[in-house]
Amino acid sequence: MPELPEVEVVRRGLDTHLVGRTLGEVEVLHPRAVRGNEEDLAALLPGLTVTGTGRRGKFMWLELSDGAALVVHLRMSGQMLLDAPGRIASPHVRIRARMGEIELSFVDQRTFGLWQYAPLVDGFPATISHIAPDPFEAAFDAQEAARAMRRRNSPLKSVLLNQEVVSGIGSIYADEAMWAARLRPWRNARTMRQRDAVRVLEEARDVMARSLEQGGTSFDSLYVNVNGASGSFSRSLNAYGQAGAPCPRCATPIERTVVGGRSSYFCPACQVL
C-alpha cells in the first residue's frame, strides 16, 4: 500500500497539473470506485474547479470550488494517471475525468481504492477527522505523539501503523525507522522510554523525507506517479524486504518475523532496545 512519500509524490503531480482546471465529463466505470458517496459523482463533479490539493498521512484530496473536497484513497493498487483523452487504455480504469486537453484516470487493479466527496472542516475532509497528524505537518507534536504511543499496550510495529496515533507510516517506513532507532518491532510500546519513542518518530520522518527525494518506493508497477514513473527508494532500504542480506550497520543477516499479522524485518544483533 502506498505510504506517505508515495501519496505525497502523487499529490504534488496533481497539484502541478490540475489546480485551476475545471472538471468536465466524469465517467464512472466501476461502482466500487465511488462506494459510500451519497451523491452521484458523475453528475456532481462536472463544472467544479480544482482550487488546491491536500494530504494528511496516506490520504490526499483535491480542493473544489464549491468548498468541498474530492478525497482519493489509493489503497493497495490505486493510481491517478494524467494523459491526453483516451490515451490510458488499461482494463483497470475505474473513473475517467476530462479536464480540458488532459484526462485524469483512476486506475485500480484490485478495486480497493475510491473517490469520495466530502465537506472540508478546518481545512481537512470530514471523512478523515479521526486520522492523526503526520510527521510533516506543522501541527505535529513529536513529544505528544510519543506519549500517545506509550499509552498503547501493543507492539511498537503495530502502534506505528495505527493511523490514529501517527499517520502516514506503513510497514516499509516503520521497519526502516525501527532499524535506524535500534528498536525491535515486538517491543511493547508502553514499556518504551519517552526519548526512544520520540527518536523512532524522528527516524520515520527522516527516512520518509529521503524517500520523497527519490520519488518514493516502488516494488512493482502498481505504485507510479501521475506520469507513470516509479520511485527508486527501494534501492536504499536497510531492513524492509532484506531478509538474509547483511545488515548495513553490523553485517548480521536481516531477519523476518511477524508482528500483529504483518511481516517485519529487523537486525537481531544491533536492534537491541
Structure description:
- With 273 residues, this protein is of the alpha+beta class.
- It has two domains: 4-128, Alpha-Beta Barrel (N-terminal domain of MutM-like DNA repair proteins); 142-266, Helicase, Ruva Protein, domain 3 (Orthogonal Bundle).
- Helices cover 23% and strands 23% of the residues.
- The protein has six helices and eleven strands.
Short description:
This protein has 273 residues and is α+β, with helices and mostly antiparallel strands. The protein contains 6 helices and 11 strands.
Order of helices and strands: HEHEEEEEEEEHHHHEE
CATH superfamily of the largest domain: MutM-like, N-terminal
State the domain count. Answer: 2
* Overall pLDDT confidence: 94
Q: Quickly name the level 1 CATH class of the largest domain.
A: Alpha Beta
**Structural class label:** alpha+beta
Summed up, the helix count is 6
CATH architecture of the largest domain: Alpha-Beta Barrel
Separation, N- and C-terminal Cα atoms = 28 Å
Strand fraction band?
A: 15-25%
Strands of the biggest beta sheet: in what spatial order? 2-3-4-8-9
Q: What is the CA-based Rg, rounded?
A: 20 Å
Ranges where pLDDT stays below 50 over 5 or more residues in a row are none
* Main sheet overview: 5 strands, antiparallel
